[in-house]
């Protein structure tokens, strides 16, 4: 087989890139280790930045998002006895959209025009520094496959083969792990809030998010390595009630049936550069952020948009300047999001150190009382331009 762009990974980065290339008349083929059902069912992020929604809308992918998603003006930040609303629209002119990654994934699959091969095994990337790179893999029926291309896009996450295909001497990896995780639940109950609540509490961070008018998504900070079976449903709801301030100023948290419970590790990772010869990395293959800033999916959308533009210039006009600038441009944005995610994470998570706790509360008071402080948060949460 031959194509113009061989894409490794059929998550949002890979499928959006394929879609954007298709709009520009560029052929691609996507390979994916997992089954289509597995990729579709993965519970991931739920927040799209203003700029991400613009990219999706321009690509003809905005109809269901705008009909079924929910635009939020901002978020609530709280700590015991105080809850403050930050109005991103008033502060920056930009809001965010609540739309599950699972929904976006469905839209991308429905809009797909390029072939996608699922459940492939042993994907390998070859000849990346030549102008004839290729992929090999084993199909589900056991046959050996080869795909020749002009460019390979690695959109296969931090555990996929693309990131590792860059020789050790040609890459730097920057990493931060955190001593805590998030216990996440999906619950079949209407959200108890109109917009997301980020809560600081001495017992640890809690977040009240949502997916639909009938489905809530909530998180609790737990120690790294926590086993979800240590958290029976009643314990989850009583700890959420405590940390989110149930009963304060008349606010109530309504519990409901928990349909999913899992523990998410918190880590940050950046691999640089995001290009090696004809291999370009996009999304989680190049960077992982802790979920506190809601940036992971947005970075994937931004990378796909930038890369599609760069590859269109390279393959249609034989102009490689945007491709040459891709890594630098994408990494600038990735580091901004990495900093913001680290900042939100360290401002909101309990460390057990009273000095940290006082600094966090002081920072929260400043961010919620100073227009400059609030605008900084709002700009990073809702308003990063595509190519800063
Ligand atoms: C989510 O809804 O899953 C979500 C929302 C905001 C975050 C992280 C996760 O910061």
TrEMBL record:
Look up the coiled coil feature and give its residue ranges: none
Q: Which domain of life is it from?
A: Bacteria
Keywords (alphabetical) are: Oxidoreductase
Question: Which InterPro entries does this chain map to?
Answer: FAD-bd, FAD/NAD-bd_sf, PheA/TfdB_FAD_monoxygenase
Signal peptide positions (record) = none
Domain named FAD-binding: which ranges? 2-340
This chain belongs to the protein called 4-hydroxybenzoate 3-monooxygenase
Gene source species:
Dactylosporangium salmoneum
